[in-house]
Specification:
The structure is a homodimer of 394-residue chains. Chain A is of the alpha/beta class. Chain A has 2 domains: 125 residues, Malic enzyme, N-terminal domain (Rossmann fold), CATH 3.40.50.10380; 219 residues, 3-Layer(aba) Sandwich (Rossmann fold). Helices cover 43% and strands 12% of the residues of chain A. In chain A, α14 links the parallel β10 and β11. Chains A and B meet through α2, β1, α3, α4 and α5 of A and α2, β1, α3, α4 and α5 of B.
């Protein structure tokens, strides 16, 4: 295990190699039907294709079986919250969205196309996606800033008759739930009594709070840049804090005020999704058998070796430490399962089923350094797909 | 040569085989960078991709070289004029658009994605494509009904900083110009003195008239369902006939009124893009060495064997007769050339250069039955690409 907060993987790969790998983009279109002869053209294009188009016009359900759209995921971003880079705009987000499409294909066997928006107005984005909705069969929202992302996802789910998921919220939350499910087993605790602190009340933090509450964790404290969110905070009445205000009423049952020091005093779990840092002395106040998920990328909220001095289980978002909490464990199988099941919504039950499937796969070798399978584990996407399909049909 | 108006190719392929070939769609996404190891992920996705995104944010020109969008064609349709099927809607048009994408890849080596619109409002379509413009590098408009297609193309060209072309207009016009260039050589005539009749004043007819006028043909008569278009026609003052009114002032210099009989009397060239039929007795009135392009699909305006009784050169849109006038000769090379040249517009000069390149390729074996190369001729797209690049840079 590396004991430095440098980014060894990043530094061992040259900038030149990285840029070369992205040159010309990372995606291409494949043609699944050959067009080598006049006969091929007559089948795949005119005149043959007219029969297929006429049939779909008469029975729209045929579009599901005879076009690529019903299984195509639109990877949609407006570039407002790209990785740790912030609002860098739609075009600059495209290398990330192409990478996401590559992950969809590699791990889920799903085709997807990046759709970049050069508007950041929520209603305009909804209107735009509704207008081009016949082009695809699901929407993966990506790297949209909070709190806009909550409103955008909710409105899209209402407006589109297809699976819609903001992965930065729910993909993260699903994998955190899977990891926490196994971490509490390692330390011999249960969800019901768990004192949990989430640093970061953006897309990921809110979704993690939501899925933990729905899974039986009762004591969750959300922290934003001003400290613990509780019902007594005056600033939460601002319209942009509507989501935080809602969670002020549903979290922090002990009414803890203050910062990480106060929140972490006696806490069992720290989950960082904040791009901030946590001083070691605050971690020192956590309970015995503490669990620390320091998920900010590329720099975790606390170095794993430091965290391990005070915690029994440590996870990060990085591939060069044990216990990598990575969305790729979840989203390919979630979308594949939803599409294979013909589901119109991705429900909370489907998300929790995905988390359970991921957690199950680590059971056989469960330890403090192995609470989730590797993102490259080929068993993951099929298991998540099957679990999500079961939940969709159940 | 087949001497029947049946569709032999269509009838020899079973409906079952056609539907099987379209099942699941005809396109897929290819991943050009492997994602097999943690190192691959670190290069193509996080953390490596952040370097590329940050670089594009600082220098937007890098999006051109380090994403797929700059060379990606959006194949855009609202499904209002699909093949000969009419307004069958966006979803039903998708098999055609997938086929178009397959042709772009097979013949032009260009990636493209179908974008289907479930609005038919011109301004909404423009607004929508502007909002998602960072997703692609060119727009191929397809199967949009006239006269909306003229307004839509013009507005898109103004609104988008990238090549835009309505292929049903200009792809057809380019191949017709190529074919006519060679046909007049076969019959020993010249463009300047040519009496030309175009049946059909929709997308293709108007664009053919435009490119012929720009190429030195002086006597062009456009026919719509009410007969020859001339300045004296009262119905052309309706707003939806604005384009016809404009061409009434630029065509028909002899002021011919009436139908095909009157227009074809003494005519050198008949070009049918009308989905109508032309009686043999009207063709009998054409000049010696007549040229007949009966381009409606799947049923030409006149059977080729009938046309040959009165014409020296006959062409159709079908692959089972000689002289197939097919857009695939033009659009892959036109878009490839425009994108390779970094052109922001597809100009009239680029279209005429494409036509000249296509015509040139048939020179070595020029005859009444060989005025254009086969759509499957692998020399075509590279030659058109080179000619369009020259015209773009010249």
């Amino acid at each position: 295990m590396t004991t430095s907060t440098d980014s060894p993987i990043q530094t061992q790969i040259s900038t030149q190699e990285i840029f070369a790998a992205h040159e010309g983009g990372k995606l291409s279109i494949g043609v699944d039907r050959p067009l080598a002869t006049k006969r091929d053209l007559s089948i795949a294009y005119t005149p043959g294709v007219a029969q297929v188009s006429r049939a779909i016009a008469e029975d729209p359900a045929l579009a599901r079986t005879h076009t690529w759209a019903s299984r195509l995921v639109a990877v949609v971003s407006d570039g407002t919250a790209v990785l740790g880079l912030g609002n860098i705009g739609a075009s600059a987000s495209l290398p990330v969205m192409e990478g996401k499409s590559a992950l969809f294909k590699t791990f889920g066997g799903l085709d997807s196309i990046p759709i970049l928006l050069n508007t950041t107005d929520v209603d305009e984005i909804v209107e735009t996606l509704v207008r081009i909705a016949p082009s695809f069969g699901a929407v993966n929202l990506e790297d949209v800033s909070a709190p806009r992302c909550f409103e955008l996802e909710a409105k899209l789910i209402e407006a589109l008759d297809m699976p819609v998921m903001h992965d930065d919220q729910h993909g993260t939350a699903v994998v955190v739930l899977a990891a926490l499910t196994n971490a509490v087993k390692v330390v011999g605790k249960e969800f019901a009594g768990l004192k949990t602190v989430i640093a970061g009340a953006g897309a990921a933090g809110i979704a993690i709070a939501e899925i933990l509450l729905a899974s039986g964790v009762e004591d969750v404290i959300l922290l934003d840049s001003k400290g613990a969110i509780h019902a007594g905070r005056q600033d939460l009445s601002e319209p942009r804090n509507a989501m935080k205000l809602e969670y002020a009423g549903r979290t922090n049952p002990r009414g803890v005020a203050g910062g990480t020091a106060e929140a972490l005093a006696g806490a069992d779990v720290f989950i960082g999704v904040s791009s901030s840092t946590v001083p070691e002395e605050h971690l020192a106040g956590m309970a015995e058998g503490a669990i620390v998920f320091a998920l900010s990328n590329p720099d975790p909220e606390v170095a794993p070796d430091v965290a391990r001095r005070h915690a029994a289980v440590v996870a990060t978002g990085r591939s060069d430490f044990p216990n990598q909490i990575n969305n790729v464990l979840a989203f390919p199988g979630i979308f594949r399962g939803a599409l294979d099941a013909g589901a119109r919504r991705i429900t909370p039950g489907m998300k929790r089923a995905a988390a359970a499937a991921i957690a199950d796969l680590a059971q056989d070798k469960l330890s403090a350094d192995y609470i989730v399978p590797s993102p490259l584990d080929p068993r993951v996407a099929p298991a998540v797909t099957a679990a999500v399909m079961d939940a969709a049909n159940g």
